Amino acid sequence: MAPLVEVKEVSFKYGHLQVLERVSLTIEPGDFLAIIGPNGSGKSTLIKIILGLLEPTEGEVFLFGQDLRHFHDWYRLGYVPQKAAHMIDPVFPLTVEEAVSLGLLSRKRFPRLIGRADRPAIKKALETVEMAPHGERRISELSGGQQQRVLIARAIVSAPDILFLDEPTAGVDARGQDRFYGLLNQLNQKGLTIVMVTHDISVVSRFVTKVACLNRRLYFHGSHEEFCSSPRIRELIAGEDHIIVHRH
Ligand code: ADP
């Protein structure tokens, strides 16, 4: 099958600051890919480039075989951003259902109204993340783990082919995290391709199928088995916050 995402020799600068350097990466259907690297290593920037939110300084990105510059089917990509605090602001009291319905806007044309016809999709997304009984509640009243599951529901309500998550468990307690990764695993087993950005190497453990190590450049991209069986990688990651292995 053709790759869902192809990043080809992408570089990016914020002003003079080189954040990404000639990064090439392919995401295949069914992957559960963890993009790992220390803080400031360019992980969020790479995701934002793939989502068309930032334009690469050099290089190209193809989504579903199409040049990103001509791509319009954004509903096929779900995104759980790192900073979704505006969704959870107690001053802006969004209910769970309202928050999830926002995820449908990318499928709509003007006038982008949410109507009765959208209810089954919203219900299904909430059922998937086991939040259906909480649809009427304010997001601000929920626990960190519950809020995170609502954000997933919002990202999957448009039935995307691929789900991107940026540091998804910040502010979620250990029990909430287990449940959260269990949910991601289930979605992946059902065929959803998942790309998760994290600086926490321990989450790479159980469910991911592939790992990419980024620190401005891509230092490793391969299967989870290869990643785990490389003593050099383990050693370096255990010892330091910096990933300095060259495998490409
Ligand atoms: P990560 O997600 O790996 O923590 P980022 O992609 O967020 O890394 O950031 C990479 C680098 O780019 C960091 O040095 C960060 O300070 C810088 N950076 C991020 N966003 C901006 C911005 N809007 N303007 C200038 N520099 C930025």
Automatic annotation (TrEMBL):
Pfam families, A to Z: ABC_tran
InterPro entries: AAA+_ATPase, ABC_transporter-like_ATP-bd, ABC_transporter-like_CS, Metal_Ion_Import_ABC, P-loop_NTPase
Alphabetical UniProt keywords: ATP-binding, Nucleotide-binding, Transport
SMART domains assigned: AAA
SUPFAM superfamilies in alphabetical order: P-loop containing nucleoside triphosphate hydrolases (SSF52540)
UniProt protein name: Metal ABC transporter ATP-binding protein
Family membership noted in the UniProt record: Belongs to the ABC transporter superfamily.
One MF annotation (Gene Ontology) recorded for this entry: ATP binding
